[in-house]
Amino acid sequence: xxxxxxxxxxxxxxxxxxxxxxxxxxxxxxxxxxxxxxxxxxxxxxxxxxxxxxxxxxxxxxxxxxxxxxxxxxxxxxxxxxxxxxxxxxxxxxxxxxxxxxxxxxxxxxxxxxxxxxxxxxxxxxxxxxxxxxxxxxxxxxxxxxxxxxxxxxxxxxxxxxxxxxxxxxxxxxxxxxxxxxxxxxxxxxxxxxxxxxxxxxxxxxxxxxxxxxxxxxxxxxxxxxxxxxxxxxxxxxxxxxxxxxxxxxxxxxxxxxxxxxxxxxxxxxxxxxxxxxxxxxxxxxxxxxxxxxxxxxxxxxxxxxxxxxxxxxxxxxxxxxxxxxxxx
Length: 329
Fold this sequence. Notes:
Blueprint: H1 6-18, E1 20-21, E2 24-25, E3 29-32, H2 49-54, E4 62-66, E5 70-74, H3 79-85, E6 90-94, H4 103-110, E7 116-119, H5 126-137, E8 142-145, H6 150-155, E9 168-169, H7 172-175, H8 179-192, E10 197-200, H9 203-209, E11 212-213, E12 226-230, E13 234-237, H10 247-253, E14 258-261, H11 266-276, E15 281-283, H12 289-292, E16 326-327
Parallel strand pairs: 3-7, 5-6, 7-8, 10-15, 13-14
Antiparallel strand pairs: 1-2, 3-4, 4-5, 9-11, 10-12, 12-13, 15-16
């Protein structure tokens, strides 16, 4: 069923005209990805911004809104669904077909020189940001971060709150290895690469590393958080109200101490690490542009692998993936 997006798009275009970018005012296009701030495969309702603005609720797709046009890129799994759900304001861009240009290529061709294209930097990964930035630069346009999500501003009080459910601990008989042993592996790899810190934003990697599980995203045993691993500290950025009642005992059983900091302070802490010394910080290219932009001297390509060993996870019944952070310094 099609839902009218006329009023939403009108409000968004008003905000686009007023968007402040440095000394400039106004952007020519706004990108709305499907991702949350952790580039998760699935999202909680709070993060379904692309669905809100377009009416298309498939799990994959990116909306692009200009001052005159609204377009949705999605792959072949969702062509028929998109045709049924997009109203007349939208153009379906069939991603994966040779005749369909990339988002960056389309914008570069259709926007005037000097145009600014905005996006919430927390919702676009470094890996996705760079090719769009390159294609826009070739047309003398610029991809710029917009602080404060424009869709959230329109959604207002009707936007569901970010999920914040209680975390539970995973006992050693199920995890198979303590946090301390995992930390030893990371320490050794950081030493080999002469790195000072590892920044982790992928929710499943954090849950695996800390032997914790959550339910902030339906059918996924994860919780909203960030993690910084150094030689001396484990810094967990999370709402303290969701920590399990046995969190202190959990740390003792895993032979570690975890310092808990506010979820929203991850950017401040990265900036602090960078400013205090010439630190070499590693982060995955799939992390948000917001986080990677805080780290100077980007040098993608090098990887740290964290071998998981024989973890048995009764909650997922599946192997945990390896952490693949990338050198950013």
